[in-house]
Amino acid sequence: MRIGILWVGLASLCLPVAGAGFAQEAEWPKEIDYPKAKVTIYQPQVESLENNELQARAAVSVSRDGGTPEFGAIWIEAKVDSDRGERMATLRDVKIPRVRFADASEGDQEKLAKLIQESVPDSGLSVSLDLLVADMDAAARGTDEPELKHDPPRIVYRKQPTVLVSLDGDPIYQKAGGIERVLNTPFTMARADGKLYLGAGGGLWYSASKIEGPWTAGAKPPQELRALEKQSDSTQDIEHDADKPPPAVLVVTEATELIVSDGDPSWTPVEGMDLLYLDNSDSDVFLELATQQYYVVLSGRWYRGHSIDDQWKWEHVPNDELPAGFAKIPEDSTNGHVLPLVGGTTQARDAVLDDTIPQTAAIKRSGGTPITVTYDGKPKFEAIEGIPARYAVNTASAIFEVGKHYWACEQGAWYDADKPQGPWKVATQVPEVLYRIPASNPHYNVTYVKVYDVTPEVVYVGYTPGYYGSYVYSGCVVYGTGYYYRPWYGHYYYPRVPTWGFHVSYNPWRGWGFGVSWHNGPFAFSVGFGGGWFGPVGYRPWRRPYVGGGFRKTNIDIDRSINVGDVNIDRGRRTNIQNSRNNVYNRGDNVNRVSKVGDRKRPANRPTARPARGPNNVLTDKKGNVYRRNDKGGWDQRKNHDWSKAKDLDRTPSRNASRPSNRDVSRPTSRDVSRPSNRDVSRPNRTSTTRQQRSSSTRSQLERSHQSRTRSSQRSQQYNRSRSGGGGHRGGGGGHRGGGGRRR
């Protein structure tokens, strides 16, 4: 029976707290009161989420005229508009293709179906993203893994606070007035009067005679450099502890990661395990006692060595091939934050599933701010390995040539044009070949941006975290492809996204963030989403509490952008800002491109959903039978207008059924046991066996749904605590990749 199409989005069921600044987890079940009936909708059970298309089912009950509730099941098909920053998904274009009330007559089925249809508020329903993550079946999704590189970078160890300053190869100088700026680094670096200068912010400068150092703090740069710093930031926004010496500086021109401890290494046991961790460092370094081998996690990847000094060559260890002890790290311990990076853990599975959920938006087909593409000279295209397409190399934008047509991926949306310079219009479809761009190409990330739906007014688009550089490998998420991408340098310098050199770390609520290793004073670098250099990308993790020595990792939250000449300098501040900035569709010109067509007002005569008082313990199986989790951990089934123990679900094979007895039944006796008797006792009762298999399958379904429901509630509570500052994981802030940038 088809019940029609409802234009909803699953948000009147989400009751935001005034002034909280973010949506809380929707409380389930929900009640909707009518003059002569009350409808209760229990938490939906997700069956699949492909791109932005959701299929789910939910248990419902209807009480008419105060009578006994009639329980049933509804099936839901909907499009998902998700907000990863707020961790909520709004459903639209909802269809209810099926309703089942086992105890209702055919006539009552029709009445109940009509009432259920009216009960879904026109302003929509919202579902926690953590519900989607916890309820999705990883095995059924079969997430593909891209071909990434995992060769270790150079790994350096220092015993005092040190900042890593990365250059993309040997320094590239360009004259700007009386100074020569170093273009191929995100830090403020220049050469003047035969010396090199490095700006840390807050009036602190370093100097050196050569790029590799040594670098000395307290330098007095030329006035032209001082003026640049004065324009680019305000010292009152930067913390600096004048009682402590400034950190050392390590300048490198190759892929490098830095491990820093506060003095000699201090090792502490991981609770109850044969594993130690470096407790006076903000890096994740472990020592396995049984093998005396060291393990470090960098950009989500694990590396193993017999020493942490600069001379040792580290080897890569796949995330799902770590020693078994890593998966046993307590979740609520100091090192619990690494569990999403350990293959086979529940946290890793959740992280992989979270990587499949898109951030979505409706882009106006006309009337929005048009995109512009800047080239360094005439457009120059090069072939993309393995596919019949080319990409533009002399621009920061992602521009592709397929046949005689051009495509641009800009700020999470696709555009097309007849010429490489435009004009560009919002694309309604994307050539399949562009989704085969290999990870060896610097624009591989655009394969995670898709067009979902098209209407005459808008194009529904979305991107998954792969657009930010978060990829699946060995059952976990890792940051970056591991490839080195050659930058463009002509009149302008266009950097490409690096995997190494930014102290990337992962947080289950915000994704990837970055820093500059350890420091006790100001240090900032340009990581703009509108121009300039950019570092790792993603959602800002909350900071880990202070670790030994009072030092802490730099946490870069991109709080504002300031144009200085033709360089966009984004200054980092250790602040927790609203998550809405993590959504690329809420930034810059995208604000004018995004349509609000999905915002529909609920008619005045519609009742409002509110949290129900009862427990959230009613579920359905795939056939629509309704079950209740009872206080003893068992299951009751709704039959004949009442609850009764689901005896079939308690029928489990005898513990001894497969266990051999003392008697060796395979040994021949005087009786020829191989000769069949009139009654073949070896033949199973097929009807009984099939019934037991069905019961076992149903119980497994219900148990998984119950566990997912519990897990999603826990995840939402943990997330909300992290938002309010009640919890902390290691991790730096995050910037946005955007379209890159340039220096000239």
List the main descriptive attributes of the protein structure presented here.
alpha+beta; 6-stranded antiparallel β-sheet; 50 strands; 9-stranded antiparallel β-sheet; 744 residues
Biggest sheet statistics: 9 strands, antiparallel
- Residue-averaged pLDDT: 75
Number of strands: 50
Identify the overall geometry: globular
Please compute the radius of gyration using only Cα atoms. 30 Å
Approximate strand percentage: 25-35%
Helix content: 10-25%
Number of helices: 8
Q: What is the rounded distance between the termini?
A: 65 Å
Q: Low-confidence runs (pLDDT<50, min 5 residues)?
A: 1-26, 138-142, 231-240, 526-581, 652-684, 726-744
Structural class: alpha+beta
Explain what the structure shows:
- The structure is a single chain.
- The protein has 744 residues and is an alpha+beta fold.
- It has a domain at 359-463.
- Helix content is 12%, strand content 30%.
- Strands 1, 2, 3, 4, 5, 6, 7, 8 and 46 form a 9-stranded antiparallel sheet that branches. It has a 6-stranded antiparallel sheet with strand order 11-12-13-14-15-16, covered by helices on one side.
- A hairpin with a 2-residue loop joins strand 28 and strand 29 (405-410).
- Helix 2 crosses helix 5.
- The longest helix is centred in the C-terminal third of the chain and has 38 residues, at 686-723.
- The termini are far apart.
- The model is unreliable at 1-26, 138-142, 231-240, 526-581, 652-684 and 726-744 (pLDDT under 50).
